């Protein structure tokens, strides 16, 4: 911008000079002595502005201002390469610079645009995705909303290694951080069934997601196991003959179990997150929401209704049993009262 302003003032000065020469030639030709309408001070002022604009333009090509929250990869015209982490003006001598935000966010939620918006110097460092569909262990799919915040290295050696590998923040987001986020989210879903998640396993799911984002995904083996129920299920609503209640339900079922593979040292085997090799760390990871498919919601509602119906039937059975016991007690009391009255009559007759 400053260079353009300097060029503009130079053109104005040249125009004034040409105009003054033409004015002087006209005076000589006509023998007149008219003064030039533009004072000489104007050209001097324009010359001063030109020098000022050139100086400012050169300053912006030699120095740049490092904003807070950013780390800069600087390459000077002399071939020097360095990392700038401090806030304030820094020298880069007509070279080039890339601004990397110290913390980068990858998120999937309903408020995000459908696509990747990689950062530049004027925008936030983030990847915004729609809710991601994942599959739980019991083949129930759900739309997951999650957020992960990464921190870039600040020491020069590690940062330059990362900058050489990915070159720009956009490449880092596109080829490293976003794929790791999506892969880990899917891998975490395969560790747990949807029923376990909605039966108190939410905290465990969040912890496993954060753990795998930081240290790598578990290497697992999925096994199919057939199990049978030891407890015989019986109908509970028949209060009149509790000893002859009918059995119901299938007593065998097939479940899927995921087993983590362990090394010789007893520690779980993992697929290492490649971005950690370049000093990038996971600062925080959150699961903000999980929305299962409609069929699973309907199934859970039916299960809740069936459980509520069984509870109601159980309460009715208890109430009927209490009423039966009350009736028996009332009858025993009436019999006792009659026996007492008969004894009184007999005593009166004998006396």
Brief descriptors of the model:
single chain, 351 residues, alpha+beta, Tetrahydropterin Synthase, Chain A, 5-stranded mixed sheet, 3-stranded antiparallel sheet, 6 helices, 14 strands
Short summary of the structure?
The protein is an alpha+beta fold and 351 residues long. It has helices at residues 2-30, 40-62, 156-166, 169-189, 194-215, 294-350; strands spanning 63-66, 70-75, 81-84, 88-91, 96-101, 103-108, 126-129, 132-135, 141-151, 217-218, 220-228, 252-260, 270-271, 281-292. β2 (70-75) and β3 (81-84) form a beta hairpin.
User: What is the 3D form?
Assistant: elongated
> Low-confidence parts lasting 5 or more residues at pLDDT below 50?
113-124
CATH class of the domain at 67-215 and 271-292: Alpha Beta
Per CATH, what is the topology of the domain at 67-215 and 271-292? Tetrahydropterin Synthase, Chain A
Strand content bin? 15-25%
State the helix count.
6
Q: State the secondary-structure class.
A: alpha+beta
Oligomer: single chain
What Rg is obtained from the alpha carbons, in whole angstroms?
42 Å
Q: What is the average per-residue confidence, as pLDDT, rounded to a whole number?
A: 79
User: How many angstroms does the end-to-end distance come to?
Assistant: 133 Å
Order of SSEs: HHEEEEEEEEEHHHEEEEEH
Largest sheet: 5 strands, mixed
Q: Which CATH architecture of the domain at 67-215 and 271-292 would you pick? A: 2-Layer Sandwich
Record field, number of beta strands: 14
Tell me the CATH superfamily of the domain at 67-215 and 271-292.
Band 7 domain
The share of residues in helices is 40-55%
């Amino acid at each position: 911008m400053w260079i353009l302003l300097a060029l503009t003032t130079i053109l104005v000065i040249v125009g004034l000079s040409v105009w003054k020469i033409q004015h002087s030639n006209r005076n000589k030709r006509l023998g007149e002595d008219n003064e030039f309408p533009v004072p000489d001070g104007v050209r001097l002022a324009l010359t001063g502005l030109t020098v000022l604009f050139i100086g400012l333009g050169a300053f912006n090509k030699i120095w740049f201002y490092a904003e807070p929250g950013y780390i800069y990869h600087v390459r000077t015209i002399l071939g020097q390469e360095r990392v700038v982490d401090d806030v304030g003006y820094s020298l880069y001598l007509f070279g080039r610079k890339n601004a990397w935000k110290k913390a980068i966010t990858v998120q999937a939620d309903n408020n995000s645009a459908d696509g990747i918006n990689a950062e530049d110097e004027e925008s936030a460092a983030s990847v915004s995705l729609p809710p991601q569909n994942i599959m739980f262990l019991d083949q129930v799919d759900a739309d997951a909303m999650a957020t992960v915040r990464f921190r870039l290295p600040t020491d020069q050696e590690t940062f330059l290694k990362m900058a050489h590998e990915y070159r720009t923040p956009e490449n880092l987001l596109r080829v490293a951080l976003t794929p790791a986020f999506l892969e880990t989210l899917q891998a975490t879903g395969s560790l747990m069934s949807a029923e376990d998640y909605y039966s108190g396993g939410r905290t465990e799911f969040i912890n496993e997601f954060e753990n795998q984002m930081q240290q790598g995904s578990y290497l697992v083996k999925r096994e199919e196991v057939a199990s049978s129920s030891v407890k015989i299920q019986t109908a509970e609503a028949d209060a009149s003959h509790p000893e002859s209640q009918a059995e119901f339900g299938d007593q065998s079922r097939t479940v899927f179990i995921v087993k983590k593979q362990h090394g010789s040292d007893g520690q779980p085997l993992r697929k290492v997150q490649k971005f950690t090799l370049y000093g990038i760390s996971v600062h925080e990871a959150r699961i903000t929401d999980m929305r299962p498919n409609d069929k699973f919601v309907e199934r859970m509602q039916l299960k809740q209704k069936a459980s509520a119906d069984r509870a109601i039937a159980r309460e009715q059975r208890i109430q009927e049993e209490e009423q039966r016991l009350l009736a028996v007690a009332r009858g025993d009391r009436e019999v006792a009262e009659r026996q007492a009255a008969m004894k009184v009559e007999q005593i009166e007759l004998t006396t």
